[in-house]
């Protein structure tokens, strides 16, 4: 077993799409998806951009405001997630700062309580 401390991952700042206070640290990759640790500083923004693949953003610490193609803002706290479809325009903001995990790629994401993998019995 290995223990990963996502707070110690090297992060690189991202400024594309008008982003600010945003950094990422990639730590996992498969043929179909990649795993990224995300940090947004207080007042940080991940600027509006299209999702490359289906994208899952899971808030680990703090709060985020997210919006999809329709522009409706939703607040997420620790343990909550947003899912964007491939090509969907979306953005994320945080007034107080947030630490999150993003999984992006060829993903099957079920509704809460839905069993996606029939092997999970």
UniProtKB/TrEMBL annotation:
<dbReference type="InterPro" id="IPR014710">
    <property type="entry name" value="RmlC-like_jellyroll"/>
</dbReference>
<dbReference type="InterPro" id="IPR013096">
    <property type="entry name" value="Cupin_2"/>
</dbReference>
<feature type="domain" description="Cupin type-2">
    <location>
        <begin position="38"/>
        <end position="100"/>
    </location>
</feature>
<protein>
    <submittedName>
        <fullName>Cupin domain-containing protein</fullName>
    </submittedName>
</protein>
<dbReference type="Pfam" id="PF07883">
    <property type="entry name" value="Cupin_2"/>
</dbReference>
<dbReference type="InterPro" id="IPR011051">
    <property type="entry name" value="RmlC_Cupin_sf"/>
</dbReference>
């Amino acid at each position: 077993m290995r223990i990963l401390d996502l707070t110690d991952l090297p992060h690189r700042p991202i400024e594309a799409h008008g982003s600010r206070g945003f950094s990422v640290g990639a730590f996992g990759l498969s043929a179909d998806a990649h795993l990224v640790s995300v940090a947004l500083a207080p007042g940080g923004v991940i600027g509006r951009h299209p999702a490359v693949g289906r994208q899952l953003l899971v808030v680990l610490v703090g709060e985020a405001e997210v919006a999809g193609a329709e522009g409706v803002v939703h607040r997420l706290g620790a343990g909550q997630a947003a899912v964007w479809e491939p090509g969907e325009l979306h953005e994320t903001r945080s007034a107080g700062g947030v630490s999150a995990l993003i999984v992006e790629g060829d993903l099957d994401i079920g509704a809460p309580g839905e069993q996606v993998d029939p092997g999970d019995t």
